[in-house]
Amino acid sequence: MQNWLHLLYKLPRNPSKTRVYVWRKLKRIGAILLHESVWCLPCTPKTKEQFQWIVLEIQELGGEASLWESHLVLGGQDETIIKEFTEQVDQEYIAIIDELKRVQYDLVSLTKKYHQVKSQDYFQSELGKRVLEELQGARGRDQ
User: Fold this and answer.
1) Which residues contact 76 (CB under 8 A, 6 or more apart)?
2) Can you give the residue ranges of the ChrB N-terminal domain (predicted)?
């Protein structure tokens, strides 16, 4: 059974840039939106710390935030959420693979993008392994 973290928050309507700022931070760490203003990550020491920092930032921005730890009671629901996390990173991995198929590509920026996506790949997508192999192959061809 997987333990989950849930971040619930509320920000003032204005300025809207604060809501966008928080949204971007949540997307950057790979959180998924379960319901309006309810974000989810698998519970690990790293993700707990990331959410704790975001809670503090939201409060500094004049908002309210709470962090919850939970597990699902009904069987099979973990798989649904895990699938959503995997699909989210797979889209990014596919974009990297597509870029590598081009005649010219920036291997340094694609490697950086891979590492960013890998940091959000909480359930070790098979596609992530393929991207790593293709990046290593491209690096070998460029030398």
Assistant:
1) none
2) 19-107
Q: Exposed e or buried b for every residue in 47-82, given b needs 16+ CB within 10 A?
A: bbebbeebbebbeebebebeeeeeeeeeeeebeebe
Domain that holds residue 82: 78-142
Separation of alpha carbons 109 and 139, rounded Å = 12
Q: Give residue 8's identity as a one-letter amino acid code.
A: L
**Residue that has been written with the tokens 């081009």 in this structure:** 102
Q: Of 22, 48, 71, which residue is a domain's last?
A: 71
What pLDDT digit, counting tens, does each position of 46-96 carry? 999 999 999 999 999 999 999 999 988 887 789 999 999 999 999 999 999
**Sequence-ordered list of residues with C-beta below 8 angstroms from that of 33, at least 6 positions apart, any chain:** 26, 39, 40
Give the number of other Cβ atoms within 10 Å of residue 10's Cβ.
10
Residues 63 and 112 reside in one and the same domain: no
